[in-house]
Amino acid sequence: MLRIAVPNKGSLSGPAGEMLHEAGYQQRKASKELVLVDPENEVEFFYLRPRDIAIYVSSGKLDIGITGRDLLLDSGANAEEVLPLGFARSTFRYAAKPGTVDALDGFAGLTVATSYEGIVAKHLADQGIDASVVHLDGAVETAIELGVAQVIADVVETGTSLRNAGLEIVGEPILHSEAVVIRRTGADPEAPETAKVEQFLRRLQGVLVARSYVMMDYDIRAEHLERAVALTPGLESPTISPLHDQGWVAVRSMVRTKEAQRIMDDLYELGARAILTTGIHACRL
Ligand SMILES: Nc1ncnc2c1ncn2[C@@H]1O[C@H](COP(=O)(O)OP(=O)(O)OP(=O)(O)O)[C@@H](O)[C@H]1O
Ligand SMILES: O=P(O)(O)OC[C@H]1O[C@H](OP(=O)(O)OP(=O)(O)O)[C@H](O)[C@@H]1O
Ligand SMILES: [Mg+2]
């Protein structure tokens, strides 16, 4: 049975559960459930604190886990990212009160408050900046107002939390984060669970593709086919079928959802008709 760590709380928890559900796995019904066995798919889910997931996976007790890239890096655990999942996207940044410090080299001698001490201590050391780091569990934006630090380093998505605290960003992002699947570094490729891990990753990749592509069908006169196919090359190669009407063909191809309307306009201009898009529920490429 494959043993998988899933975030039990916070920003990662809901979207991770939805993605696993879309991939055909059973998910817990109540947020108090800590373990769920899905016998049909031969997997066991462990609902753990997001921050602890890299530690469990690196210990080898769990085969694979979903966590944030920032949490993985902060943990320093012996685990690596094997698949980015495209949700819980954020940047990790420094911020301070306007007019106090506007660049990293002004941090010398100051205190930086953060919940991500591992990332921040390493970043400051790499930049050769001699600043202190104070660890706080959350709501770090308030640390400056309360005089615990002069600088914070935290997750920024919309920037609302920083604005509300009267802070502004300092310097470039320390990193870009999103939810990722992680596995123990140096896991034996011959290990018995490897085939199950690969199957799990293919299912999630299928969800990612189904979320970002639609299937497009249209009819076009044969003489315009090459120009039409240039607009809809598909992932490998489009399917072309003859139509009963001489001189016309039907084309079927996958296109990115966010480009679909523009491509439909361009195909129509080219003379294509009966242009249809349909959603993809699941796939294996
Ligand atoms: N506002 C946000 N937008 C996107 N991702 C976020 C946001 N806040 C936290 N994350 C991501 O969530 C992960 C942290 O999860 P964690 O559960 O520790 O914190 P949280 O989502 O802030 O929840 P909590 O309210 O329990 O602090 C990190 O990968 C982080 O980048
Ligand atoms: O840029 P924004 O869209 O405002 O999002 C970023 C905020 O979201 C998270 O906080 P959360 O609400 O989880 O509280 P926490 O600080 O206690 O973790 C994060 O720690 C930031 O504070
Ligand atoms: Mg938080």
Automatic annotation (TrEMBL):
Cofactor(s) the record lists: Mg(2+)
Predominant location: cytoplasm
Sequence ranges assigned to domain ATP phosphoribosyltransferase catalytic in this UniProt record: 49-206
Cell compartments where the protein resides: Cytoplasm
Keyword Transferase (UniProt): yes
Annotated InterPro entries: ATP-PRT_HisG_long, ATP_PRibTrfase_cat, ATP_PRibTrfase_HisG, HisG_C, N-reg_PII-like_a/b, N-reg_PII/ATP_PRibTrfase_C
Gene Ontology MF annotations: glycosyltransferase activity
One Pfam family from the record: HisG
Enzyme Commission code: 2.4.2.17
Transmembrane segments: none
Keyword vocabulary terms for this entry: Amino-acid biosynthesis, ATP-binding, Cytoplasm, Glycosyltransferase, Histidine biosynthesis, Magnesium, Metal-binding, Nucleotide-binding, Transferase
Family: Belongs to the ATP phosphoribosyltransferase family. Long subfamily.
Alphabetical list of HAMAP family matching this protein: HisG_Long (MF_00079)
The protein's name: ATP phosphoribosyltransferase
Organism: Streptomyces albiaxialis
Gene name, Swiss-Prot/TrEMBL: hisG_2
